[in-house]
Write a structure and sequence with these properties.
heterodimer; A: alpha+beta; Jelly Rolls; 4 domains; seven-stranded mixed β-sheet; six-stranded antiparallel β-sheet; 12 helices; 20 strands; flat; B: mainly alpha; 2 domains; two-stranded parallel sheet; two-stranded antiparallel ribbon; 22 helices; 4 strands; 70% helix; 2% strand; globular
């Protein structure tokens, strides 16, 4: 095969997978008229053909190993090219990626001052053992519910007894913290019994991040008390437990894994963003996988410098494989979450018809009420104004009322302005205080003072349908 | 029964779009590799536009919506075009595509990877189908801004006016209201067609088109990368990356927003458009034109993505000498936006203010730390680092310009939140990014290919490097 023929074969089929070989042996024909004709036989190598025949890759330093020089000056007695050693690009990249993951984990444990093995088992203090020395709160059903004072700090405390050196990570299971809350961890120890130390905690998505105190100069002796000090006027805080954990490899990994694989069901914000596990994460999974991929690329690049003949495909396939591995691991997590969500959806809606699905949805009661209301209205589209406190219910009621000509205020809960409604219009009120109906005078009065003649067509537990007269 | 009828209804735009593209292909044949999945994917975009255009014509003519006024003309038109395409060779390589699917011409390890990725994609698509077919419309705008119109169109068997609340209050003729009355009617019309075909309104079946938009997007990326000369496994990796994008999956599962259809139309419009400008192949021209028109007809802010596509299309039309100039123009636009913000912080056009209030931190969190896009940010950065010559060569420069223009637009939305009135909903920065990301993945996959020979030969660069990239950079460039 001449050099020109070799170039032709490389042509448009040369890719990240290497121009030929076991990972890219034969391709469908490319019929671009501008390309030189391909030699199908050259592409259709048997899958198990030896690498020497199947993959004279262009990445190899051409001087000693490719037959280009020989092809340029054909000689009948050209000695056969030396057999190339097995290419290790793919296997090497996979191994390097695993190594990269291990290095990232090791680095993470080291940065957090962790150890390979745990010195003690974790200790958890439940809400029942907690007290509220400042502020108001009560423990019920395994949850300490407390209200932060308007002008003071809320303190939730628990007496403890463990060795600081053994258990250096403190994790509060707390919810309901406003984003701007000032939250601090208080602790005292038998080493400094007269002092209460405090450390700032980070609030994320209503929770606090766990804090590692292994390097803290006051985290000494036996810890005799832990407390959470919260300055968030008026906020209602719920605390389930506080745990003191060892900074071991297993503990750190299990904590992170719990965050990464926490169920993330559909919510109103899912359409805008996918978190990927817990709302607050100490180490989001894309970061270690990204680092592992970069380390893998560096390791293979280093290996390629030392044994070029074993890594002939170049850096691009290495990068692609490392990238795909990291992507696949991330997507396994997402697939698992999606699978859980599909199971929930099937459990709720599976096998139901349209009407049953409407009743099974979050606002099933509202849907049932709207069905009753629609039955009392003419079938052809009428003008209807929907009033409800929450915009969600205003919107959903309007949705169920369609194809009637429904209006609702998407942002604020406003009563109808004077002149907005006319005879023949309807008003649907869903559990909204402030609307009064005088059945004798047949008049409806809204909280903004607007009063209209109306007939109540349906009244049901704080909800009603009025026909404006 | 409802699902079967809905599936039948969904097949109508698909058949019509595929027939249109197959007929175009019969006018001027294009290469075979990847053409079948590409035609199916792009065909759905074309078909949606065609069917909703028929519905618009029905509405103008006062013909009520129904099988006779929508389904029959669509199917007759599809049959006529398919017959014409069948009579004029070359035929669509359906059989060859099926063979590639079940018996790809690959070595054993690559074949294993092929089937593993196919299974991965199939599982994802199946899970999303179960979710879409079971759950009533869930996401907020889906039932407050989009399907509202569809429900009214279906009930009235016509296109009825939607107005804002002030106009609703004072309307003297029948007028409907929803949360976004200014949005175009195309997607609601598609939902209305499904309900019309089924004969009843069903919250779940009207969401099925979103699942098909998702599938179409995956097919288009696979087909496009194949059409550009990639081997099957290479193209499948690109398709797998798109199919596994979490936020794309969410948009399919919680169907009803316009962003996933926009992403599919943007991918078709740009990828086919760049080629169409160069080759004038009827198939690409029609697909690109339909997709670009669809961008503006899917969502009011979709026109911005047409503007984003313009630099790349212009680069493809004007040739290599203009690539650098157009890149400079894109850069100047970016700097001008920043300059206006710095010099005139109170500058506003109508209600849209240019006040600089960036949310870079949350954007970076969304793009890198959270699971929205997996590792797309790393992929784009890595592609730029490893294939920097390839991405600016004559073949890829137009696509890279579109990528850059899209990045500038997203950065503008991040920096000037008020501009999101034009480019995205206030809460939906990720939703705007969704339009760009599948295209970016296709760009990554194409960048990993060597430049096609004709791009280097046909357009010698008068001012750039004398050696085309294909000659200087080997297939998988070494370290």
């Amino acid at each position: 095969m001449s050099k020109q023929g070799s170039e032709a074969r490389r042509g448009r089929t040369a890719t990240i997978w290497g121009s030929r070989g076991r990972w890219a042996s034969a391709y469908s024909p490319v019929t671009d008229p501008n390309l030189p004709p391909r030699d199908p036989a050259a592409d259709d190598l048997p899958p198990d053909a030896p690498m020497q025949a199947a993959d004279p890759t262009p990445e190899v330093d051409p001087a000693p190993e490719t037959p280009v020089a020989a092809a340029a000056a054909p000689e009948p007695q050209t000695p056969p090219a030396p057999r190339l050693p097995r290419d290790l690009t793919v296997v090497g990249t996979v191994v390097a990626f695993v190594l990269g993951c291990a290095l990232v984990v090791a680095g993470y444990v080291a940065i957090n001052g962790g150890a390979l093995l745990a010195a003690a088992s974790p200790v958890t203090y439940e809400a029942a053992r907690m007290s509220v020395p400042r502020g108001l709160g009560r423990a019920e059903g395994g949850v300490m519910t407390a209200q932060a004072p308007a002008n003071d700090v809320l303190i939730i405390a628990v007496a403890t007894d463990f060795r600081a050196r053994d258990l250096a990570t403190i994790a509060w299971d707390v919810t309901g913290l406003p984003a701007d809350a000032d939250v601090r961890l208080l602790f005292n120890s038998d080493y400094t019994p007269r002092r209460v130390h405090n450390r700032a905690l980070t609030v994320e998505d209503g929770h606090v991040r766990s804090v590692a105190l292994a390097e803290d100069r006051d985290w000494l002796g036996r810890i005799t008390g832990l407390a959470l000090a919260i300055r968030a006027p008026g906020a209602t805080i719920r605390v389930r437990s506080v745990s003191a954990k060892p900074l071991s490899l297993g503990q750190l990994l299990s904590d992170r894994a719990r965050e990464w694989f926490r169920d993330e069901p559909w919510t109103g914000t899912s359409i805008n963003s996918v978190t990927g596990g817990a709302g607050a994460q100490n180490l989001p999974l894309p970061i270690p996988l990204m680092l592992a991929a970069l380390i893998a690329i560096a390791l293979v690049a280093l290996a390629a410098r030392l044994a070029r003949s074993r890594f002939r495909r170049g850096i691009v396939p290495v990068a692609v494989i490392a990238f795909a591995l990291a992507w696949a691991l991330l997507d396994l997590r997402w697939t698992a979450n999606l699978g859980r969500q599909v199971a929930v959806t099937l459990d709720r809606y599976g096998g139901k018809d349209t009407a049953e699905r409407g009743l099974a949805a979050e606002e099933g009661e509202l849907a049932a009420f709207v069905d009753k209301a629609k039955a009392r209205m003419p079938p052809d589209p009428q003008r209807v104004l929907v009033l409800a406190q929450a915009h969600y219910f205003r919107g959903r009621a309007s949705w169920h009322l369609l194809p009637h000509r429904v209006a609702w205020e998407p942002v604020r809960d406003l009563a109808p302005a004077a002149g907005m409604l006319h005879a023949g219009d309807y008003v649907l009120v869903w559990r909204r205080p402030g609307t009064q109906y005088d059945a004798v005078a047949e008049r409806v009065r809204f909280d903004n003072g607007v009063e209209l003649p109306a007939k109540a067509l349906l009244v049901d537990q704080g909800s009603a349908l009025f026909a404006i007269q | 029964m409802t699902l079967a009828l809905a599936a039948l209804a969904l097949v109508v735009p698909l058949l019509l779009g595929v027939a249109v593209l197959a007929w175009c292909r019969s006018r001027a044949a294009v290469d075979d590799a990847g053409i079948v999945p590409w035609t199916i994917g792009a065909g759905f975009i074309v078909g949606v536009l065609a069917v909703t255009t028929i519905m618009r014509l029905d509405a103008v003519a006062g013909i009520p919506f129904g099988w006779l006024s929508i389904g029959v003309p669509s199917l007759v038109l599809a049959a006529a075009l398919a017959w014409q395409a069948h009579r004029a060779p070359p035929a669509m390589p359906w059989l060859s595509a099926a063979c590639t699917l079940v018996a790809p011409p690959l070595g054993r390890p690559a074949r294993l990877a092929w089937f593993a990725l196919l299974a991965w994609i199939a599982v994802r698509v199946a899970m999303l189908l179960v979710e879409v077919a079971s759950r009533p419309l869930y996401a907020w705008d889906a039932w407050s801004a989009w399907a509202t119109k569809a429900k009214a169109y279906f009930a009235m068997r016509a296109i009825v006016p939607f107005v804002d609340i002030a106009s609703w209050s004072t309307a003297t003729t029948p007028a409907w209201y929803d949360a976004q009355p200014m949005q175009p009617a195309t997607l609601p019309l598609l939902q209305a067609w499904i309900a019309t075909a089924v004969g009843a309104w069903d919250d779940a079946s009207v969401a099925l088109p979103w699942w098909l938009f998702f599938v179409a997007l995956v097919l288009v990326v696979y087909g496009e990368v194949r059409r550009r000369g990639a081997p099957p496994l290479h193209a499948l990796v690109g398709a797998w990356l798109v199919a596994t994008l979490p936020l794309a999956g969410v948009q399919a599962a919680l169907a009803g927003y316009a962003d996933l259809p926009l992403a599919a139309a943007f991918a078709v419009g740009t990828l086919a458009g760049v080629r169409a400008v160069r080759t004038l192949s009827p198939m690409d021209v029609v697909a690109a034109a339909a997709a670009l028109v669809s961008l503006a007809l899917y969502k009011a802010s979709g026109f911005a993505w047409v503007v984003v596509a313009l630099p790349g299309l212009a680069a493809a039309a004007l040739g290599r000498p203009w690539h650098r100039r157009l890149a400079v123009i894109v850069l100047v636009v970016a700097i001008a936006i920043a300059g206006i913000a710095a010099r005139f912080p109170k500058f506003a056009i109508g209600s849209v203010s240019f006040a600089y209030a960036p949310v870079w931190d949350s954007f970076v969190t969304d793009s890198v730390l959270l699971a929205n896009w997996h590792l797309v940010a790393l992929g784009v950065a890595g592609t730029l680092a490893l294939r920097h010559r390839r991405v600016v060569d004559a073949d890829m420069a137009p696509l890279t310009l579109i990528l850059a223009a899209g990045a500038v637009w997203i950065a503008t939305l991040v920096a000037f939140p008020s501009l999101r009135l034009w480019g995205a909903d206030f809460l939906g920065l990720n939703r705007a990014t969704l339009v760009w990301v599948p295209f970016a993945i296709a760009w990554m996959a194409i960048a990993m290919l060597d430049a096609p020979a004709e791009a280097a030969q046909a357009e010698p660069a008068p001012e750039a490097t004398p050696e085309p990239e294909v000659a200087t950079e080997p297939a998988a460039s070494g370290p």
